[in-house]
Design brief:
Length: 325
């Protein structure tokens, strides 16, 4: 992800769709299609055009059951991240269920990924973990302990809290929803929050599972959400590459936070190299239209950037914000 600044005061968050080719010249093209889970309709229209043009799309979508992943079946249909619903539900019904991501998108005048992308193409295949698998990975690597030990309780609470929060059913989720409604009712506040979000997302570099100052249980949760799920999609990718007649092109369609780890591993484990980028504008804020002064915008962006620098991995500090004039 990157932030661009126009001479007229428009600030834009862009997300890359990156093309990889085999270093030995033999094999299908691999695309890493990073996604923002909320964005403008034009952004998702461009993403859809890319995805529909690929022979195979391996997409993220945590589901409730532990079933074999198969193309173009009910078990392969997406569900909102960490939502405890059946994968057999129709996409429209699953997307209509309340989630914080959907509420956030609406409050900012944007749309939610699950409502904007059509996953029903025969080339789309779910390539992610189930909720049960997530819980199993959370337990791996921990020291043996009684189910009611403080460590076990913290670990389980971190996972259960995230599940409830993403569904919007927790007390914290209820508070956030109220905040979202307030943001959506004030155009300048809406633009200000959107600007802060652009700066925060555009500052992210490196592996999010190695962010600083996270509690141990949250650190473990982040590792599972990113690295273990990346393991799942790369396992499916490896199977496709080993076929006698692999697909001509494969796009891995995952959240942008997964891409740092995925890119390193695609290059290292599969012998690929980056070839070119397609930068898609996820969403934009125009200072003039929003009524935000240059001073207000500068103060906000500086504050957000400083906070992100405190959180990001020490070995991969955020680069300076990219400027396109």
């Amino acid at each position: 992800m990157r932030v661009t600044n126009s001479a007229t005061g428009a600030v834009e968050l862009q997300v890359a769709v990156r093309k990889f080719v085999p270093t030995n010249g033999t094999g299908p093209v691999i695309w890493l299609a990073g996604a923002s889970h909320i964005g403008e309709t034009n952004y998702y229209a461009q993403l859809q055009q890319h995805l529909d043009a690929q022979a195979l799309v391996l997409f993220e979508g945590i589901h409730a059951n532990h079933e074999p992943r198969a193309p173009n079946t009910s078990a392969a249909k997406p569900d909102a991240i960490l939502k405890n619903s059946s994968p057999a539900e129709p996409i429209a019904k699953a997307a209509d269920r309340t989630s914080l991501q959907k509420e956030l998108a609406e409050s900012l005048g944007l749309v939610f990924q699950l409502e904007a992308i059509n996953y029903r193409g025969t080339n789309f295949r779910n390539s992610d973990l189930s909720l049960r698998e997530l819980k199993e990975f959370m337990e791996k690597g921990d020291e043996p302990g009684a189910p009611d030990s403080p460590k076990e309780k913290r670990k389980n609470e971190a996972f259960d809290t995230l599940l409830k929060a993403m569904e919007g059913n927790s007390f914290f989720g209820t508070l956030l929803k109220a905040g979202f409604k307030l943001v959506g009712s004030n155009p300048k506040l809406q633009a200000t929050v959107k600007l802060g979000l652009i700066e925060a997302l555009g500052s992210i570099r490196g592996d999010l599972s190695r962010m600083r100052s996270l509690p141990e249980d949250v650190q473990r949760l982040m590792e599972v959400l990113i690295q273990s799920r990346n393991d799942a999609v790369l396992k499916d990718l490896r199977i496709e590459l080993k076929r006698p007649r692999p697909p001509a092109s494969i796009s891995v369609f995952y959240g942008a936070g997964h891409m740092d780890d995925l890119e390193r591993r695609v290059c290292r484990e599969f012998g690929y190299r980056a070839d070119k980028d397609l930068w898609l504008p996820a969403f934009t804020v125009d200072y003039t239209t929003a009524g935000i002064s240059l001073l207000e915008a500068t103060l906000l962006r500086t504050m957000v950037r400083q906070q992100m620098e405190e959180l990001l991995p020490s070995e991969a500090p955020p680069d300076k914000v990219e400027k396109a004039r």
